[in-house]
Amino acid sequence: MRSIKVHTTNSTNLFLRGYYRNHKACDNVYVLAEKQTAGKGQMGTVWYAEEGKNLTFSVLIKEIDILLEEQFKLSALVALSVIEVLEAIEIPKLQIKWPNDILADKHKISGILIENVAVGAKINASIIGIGLNVNQLLFANLPKVTSLGAITGKQYDLEVLAEKLANTIETNVYKKQKQPLGTVLDAYYQKLLGYKKVATYKLPSGESLVGIITKVTPSGFLNLALETQEKQFAIKEIKQLY
Ligand code: BTN
Fold it and tell me: Measured from the CB, is residue 30 less than 6 Å from ligand 1?
């Protein structure tokens, strides 16, 4: 896949959105930046990454054929692709924290921000942004965060990782998008933190809940079995403690 390297941009997701708007007929492409001045996390948060040490990149995948009502299929395929690449370089104890944070030994190593372009009832193109902590070794005041280097003591080439991730995502999306959603979800559940296990969750009000993840819905809601009922939550509505 073609790649674009930039030194500084506001956000690689925003960069690709602009690029796509101006090059509608382009092939799939990924962009990596040494520095983002306004890196975006999920739910309007900011994604911080030390300049030049971590992977901040986004992939544009076109000609996707996934129903919007099953949009979680794409999210699951991307998270599983990141795990596949990290497993291939022997990073141990990888898990997904719903919806698509990647954890290594219960520390966040990667975050994913997917922005879809829909046509009618289908996802047609997607901008898949990935932040992967790579060669940064210290994360001040972030005890639940880690990096490839912190885990293995090795240095990694960011461009090699970006190429592997982009190609693995592209291959898996095209190969698996027509698999039944249940098949994709089964693979996702195998890696999902808290799946069929008792865990504690926090509501925005500060209230704690104890529950068991029984499923994730096709559009990506978390289904928790609570003491007396089953309930579904959107990403803004609940936080899993770990
Ligand atoms: C999260 O866990 O909150 C998602 C973080 C996603 C960060 C990546 S870094 C590259 C791409 N560009 C952005 O602005 N965000 C994503």
Answer: no
